[in-house]
Recover the amino acids of this structure.
């Protein structure tokens, strides 16, 4: 499946057919970020080769790939609109203060649909891969106080 086809499908789904909201490179990055987790969750190893996803994902896998990539795109827009403010100029008024929340709600909805579709694809035998765990680092030389148990 060609990366440009997925980007075009994302533009249609996100309502950005005129390429106003998202740059092509941002949507391509979202698709590339989604390839590995979708591959892990579906058990299908995918990778990018010369602008194409190999092996080509079938209908269901392509659909969940789009869902996850679109949720990543919403996260980008949530970050872009986080500092939006209300504008009042004469009779014109633009309320942009809720844009970040709306993008966050859409991101959460897309992730919920992704999880639901992945679970349906795999049946009861499926576990969604958790994000990687990061160890907690403690400061070297910190004191450990041992307490004695009172009997």
């Amino acid at each position: 499946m060609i990366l440009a086809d997925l980007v075009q499908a994302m533009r249609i789904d996100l309502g950005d057919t005129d390429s106003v909201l998202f740059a092509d490179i941002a949507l391509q990055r979202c698709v590339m970020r989604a390839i590995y987790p979708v591959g892990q969750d579906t058990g299908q190893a995918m990778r990018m080769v010369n602008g194409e996803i190999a092996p080509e994902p079938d209908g269901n896998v392509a659909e969940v790939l789009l869902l996850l990539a679109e949720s990543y795109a919403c996260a980008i827009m949530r970050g872009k609109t986080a500092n939006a403010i209300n504008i009042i100029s004469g009779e014109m008024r633009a309320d942009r203060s809720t844009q970040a929340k709306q993008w966050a709600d859409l991101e959460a909805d897309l992730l919920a649909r992704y999880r639901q579709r992945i679970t349906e694809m795999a049946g009861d035998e499926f576990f969604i891969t958790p994000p990687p765990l990061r160890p907690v680092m403690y400061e070297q030389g910190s004191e450990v106080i041992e307490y004695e148990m009172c009997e």
The mean pLDDT is 80.
